[in-house]
Known about the structure:
Blueprint: E1 4-5, E2 15-20, E3 29-33, E4 39-43, H1 47-56, E5 64-70, E6 73-79, E7 118-120, E8 124-126, E9 130-138, E10 146-148, E11 152-161, E12 165-167, E13 172-183, E14 190-194, E15 202-214, E16 218-222, E17 229-238, E18 240-245, E19 253-262, E20 266-272, E21 282-295, E22 298-304
Amino acid sequence: MRYLMTGTLLLTGAAIAQSTVTSTRLExxxxxxxxxxxxxxFLLRNSQEAExxxxxxxxxxxxxxxxxxxxxxxxxxxxxxxxxxxxxxPAVHAAPDPVQSSPGVPLSFDDPVYANVTNNTSGINLPxxxxxxxxxxxxxxxxxxxxxxxxxxxxRLRIRSREGVRCISGDINMSWVYIEATGIxxxxxxxxxxxxxxxxxxxxxxxxxIKMAGVTTAGxxxxxxxxxxxxxxxxxxxxxxxxxxxxxxxxxxxSLKNVYFVRGSFRYRPFMFDVVKGRRINIVEWENxxxxxxxxxxxxxGSPIPRP
Length: 308
């Protein structure tokens, strides 16, 4: 995950470390004991104040750990006694490269990860055991922009079209894929669609974003006796009638780890695992699945979504 971690500062007396996804400010609230009888809170602005705090700290505090929630952010407060304050080093607390500060997904069609892509204006059909790397495809045919006819690998691929990727069969691996599909009246409009009755395979999607608009079905859809497994890790779903929809006849299992759904962007639901003939797809993993919201061009992760 490309989370941006604000600096963790240790001080004789107390330290607070905050972790968010989007903030680029370094904030640390310190509790500096001025005497054995009282403690004074202040905002650490420079190393001189920190040194003054260290000189005045005379109370020995035992270790304390407190966890709290504030509008879906988690704050950890750790009080540590008799721990020497390290010299303030601006380089240690500098903001990381912006490419590394998102939650492990491309945040837009122009994300820096696509700096070296080759531009195309027509879709491609990939034969079994082939790959597509560093490609950008913008087209408006209404057909699937990329078709994997068998096992294939898609890496650093971005698509802007009416229909994204079609999975026929085999093991299909997608990494750093950005799909922006806008459907019009009469379109099926899926970001990724697994469809070929009786076919099987494992589709693995990592570090990818599926964004839908217009007349759509789902960001990711598999159904009608497609028997494979679906694995998602570091994936963002944004928009569409559904973000992720897999009925029981659309696969044997599904796994979600670090998967985010943009709150309020879906016409019906962020995800749906339809019951078919009394059974539902097997959810193998459900870890760190969360709501997300946009603040300008920044993605802010919110509260966890319970396992269905």
